[in-house]
Amino acid sequence: MHVFNQGKWIAAIVLLFSFNSLCQAATEDEKWEFAFNAMIHVLHHEIGHALIDQFEIPVIGQEEDAADGFATVAVLETYDDPQPILLDAAASWFAMHAEQTAEGYEPTYFDLHDLNIQRAYRIICVAHGYDPNTFAAAAKEVELPEDRLETCVDDADQAVASWDKLLSNAYRNEDGPGGKVTLSVVALPEFSDVTKRLDENGAASEITKWLDETYNWPKPITVTFDTCGEENAFYDPSEVKVIMCYEFITYLRGLADTFDE
Hints:
By secondary structure, the chain is of the alpha/beta class. It is 59% helix and 8% strand. The protein has helices at 6-16, 28-54, 63-78, 83-102, 116-130, 132-141, 146-166, 192-201, 203-214, 246-258; strands spanning 181-185, 221-226, 233-236, 241-245. Strands 1-2-4-3 form a 4-stranded mixed sheet. Strand 3 (233-236) and strand 4 form a beta hairpin. Helix 2 (28-54) crosses helix 3, helix 2 crosses helix 10 (246-258) and helix 5 (116-130) packs across helix 7. The longest helix is centred in the first third of the chain and has 27 residues, at 28-54. Mean pLDDT is 88; it is low at 1-11 and 19-23.
């Protein structure tokens, strides 16, 4: 019987926490950077749902898995330096797994999503398969065995090729109409620090611009940052909105504090 080793995974999380390998002297700005890096992957996950819906992309298996795959591939393919984003995203899922385990949480095996720890491993696996040199240390730290690392190359190749094919008719021509993607950052006093840092970070506006320039959306789509009353992010097909909840960004920031404990 496998027994979860809390200390081992906390150590792995700390080393995956990309801005500081020790994480003992992380500044407030660095902890927010971690939160926004993890947020970027989640935001791309929801964009994956939007693409599946708007372009009627067929999905074999769970749509949540497909959206996770899109998020990782999109970060790998479109960012000059995807490493900190993906390492922080994986670290956030490892941290959520450790948090739930410490609280005695019983895994929900019938959930729409894979378990948090599976999602973390999947990010590292695909990233390593895509770029073994860059992600070798991370794969070693989370003890992915050599035989699995070999198949991670196949996983990455398949993910990239599959999304390229599925989205072949979704890309916008240079002469095609733009202006279909709108960013909405709702100003709320209780989340003023989040919105201020979000503006300084620039990720939301950059992603919105990329979405507008890259895809020929059948319907106008809005990327919204707002309060939701829960720690969540989701795509609303009825309103054609990708919604990132301030509560979830705040939660991700709080996860960074657990690396100091």
